Amino acid sequence: MFLLKKINYLTARLTVSPSSSQFFEGDFVTLRCGEDDSPAGWTLRRNTSIDTRAECEEWGEAAGSSCNISYIDPLDSGVYWCESREGPISNMVNLTVTGGSVILQSPVLPVMEGDDVTLLCKTKTTPSNLPAAFYKDGSLIRKQPTGHMTIQHVSRSDEGLYKCDISGHGESPSSWITVTVRLTVSPSSSQFFKGGFVSLSCEEDDSSAGWTLRRNTSRDTRAESECEEWGTPAGNRGLSVEMGGENHGVYWCESREGPISNMVNLTVTGGSVILQSPVLPVMEGDDVTLLCKTKTTPSNLPAAFYKDGSLIRKQPTGHMTIQHVSRSDEGLYKCDISGHGESPSSWITVTGEVSVSFADFTSLQKVQPYLMSTLLLLILY
Questions:
Q1: C-alpha closest to that of 209 among 130, 156, 270, 162
Q2: Among residues 75, 99, 123, which one ends one of the domains?
Q3: Do 72 and 107 reside in the same domain of the chain?
Q4: How confident is the model over 247-287, as pLDDT tens digits?
Q5: Stretch 214-241: mean pLDDT, rounded?
Q6: 42 and 94 share a domain?
Q7: Neighbours of 247 (CB within 10 A)
Q8: SS3 of the chain
Q9: Are strands 29-35 and 12-17 parallel, antiparallel or unpaired?
Q10: Measuring CA to CA, which residue among 15, 105, 68 is closest to residue 358?
Q11: Cα 188 from Cα 340, distance rounded (Å)
Q12: How many domains is the chain built from?
């Protein structure tokens, strides 16, 4: 049995709205620290050519956990992140602001292998469906008649520096697109009963990448532990873990080349009730079903569901479906079954077309984002 003790390893997720890595001068942009622990005290910071570690109040307008830039300027180009007073930082995002006539709307966050990714080449004043040429690493990929290009089922070979061009209007800046492996959890849930078995696997198209499962817990915080130290290998890139304890850990896949996968937070309880909710971010527009279940009795008992501490509704059969989720559905969820108890809470993230984290410093165009996170931590601390 492998004991997962409670840890204070806090994570936040920086999101950008509109979801793009490039903007025209004068655009309105909102950055937000989405988190699962509001007392953590997350602060938005940035590095640009004119400031270092500057807080939101110095370059934007703070609004709760968000920061608004009402008129974004080329001098606002740089790296943005959320930082906790307790030390951890979020994913970092690199924003490029141009005074030119063309931008490439591309994922601000890395893309999971197997996802479809759509790139949009647009001008500031004319319709966004003009013919455009798309380039990767300086070479023409293809010309599209309507200004957008979809890369289906992306793989690591699609990672690179992208830009576009619209005849008569100009060329966009370049943006790096990162493709990362997907960590999967089976059963697909973020909560588990003590003693249950969980399988984790690094799904990838290229086994030569050398992905390794790692974790953070109170026993081995930020340790680069080989999975064999706390689980039983199952297949080429997976393992089975017998969960113990009432607490949680953060799990991810890491390549010997540097990049890491999405992170998942697993909660283990010795109680009688869990909430089965998505372990990975949910796409806007999708339907999401939450299941409140007990360890020993049928999983169709009446249950009450809560978001951010407030009752949403009571359901007679123990499950609740949120239809066509939007960003407003993002939050901390739990459930309660009368006579059995309350589940732990789990954060549900709602995202756009892609998810995970993306970063590179403005002076470095082709650098893996998590290496940059490490470098930033060394610089900051």
A1: 156
A2: 99
A3: no
A4: 467 888 877 766 677 788 888 888 999 999 998 888 888 89
A5: 64
A6: yes
A7: 20
A8: CEECCCCCCCCEEEEEECCCCEEECCCCEEEEEEECCHHHCEEEEEEECCCEEEEHHHHCEEECCEEEECCCCHHHCEEEEEEECCCCEEEEEEEEEECCCEEEECCCCCEECCCCEEEEEEECCCCCCCCEEEEECCEEEEEECCCEEEECCCCHHHCEEEEEEECCCEECCCEEECEECEEEEECCCCEEECCCEEEEEEECCCHHHCEEEEEECCCCCCCCCCHHHCCEECCCCEEEEEEECCCEEEEEEEECCCCECCCEEEEEECCCEEEECCCCCEECCCCEEEEEEECCCCCCCCEEEEECCEEEEEECCCEEEECCCCHHHCEEEEEEECCCEECCCEEECEECCCCCCCCCCCCCCCCCHHHHHHHHHHHHC
A9: antiparallel
A10: 15
A11: 23
A12: 4
Peptide bond into 187 cis (omega under 30): yes
Does some domain include residue 23?
yes
Find the length of the chain.
Answer: 381
| Max mean pLDDT range (176-190, 246-260, 312-326) | 312-326
Within a domain: 63:
yes
Neighbours of 229 (CB within 10 A): 12
Domain that holds residue 329: 279-356
Question: What is residue 310's predicted lDDT score, i.e. its pLDDT?
Answer: 96
For residue range 45-69, what is the model confidence (pLDDT) as tens digits? 999 999 999 999 999 999 887 899 9
Residue 361 falls inside a structural domain: no
For residue 373, being part of any structural domain is answered with no
Domain end, chosen from 180, 198, 213, is at 180
Q: Are residues 72 and 93 in the same domain?
A: yes
**pLDDT tens for each residue of 3-38:** 333 333 445 678 899 989 999 999 999 998 865 444
Long-range pairs for 316-321 at CB < 8 Å and ≥24 separation?
Answer: 318/291, 318/292, 318/293, 319/289, 319/290, 319/291, 319/292, 320/289, 320/290, 320/292, 321/287, 321/288, 321/289, 321/290
How far apart (Å, rounded) are the C-alpha atoms in residues 265 and 129?
Answer: 41
CATH code of residue 285 = 2.60.40.10
**320 close to 313: Cβ distance less than 8 angstroms:** yes
Q: Tell me the mean pLDDT in the region 318-339.
A: 93
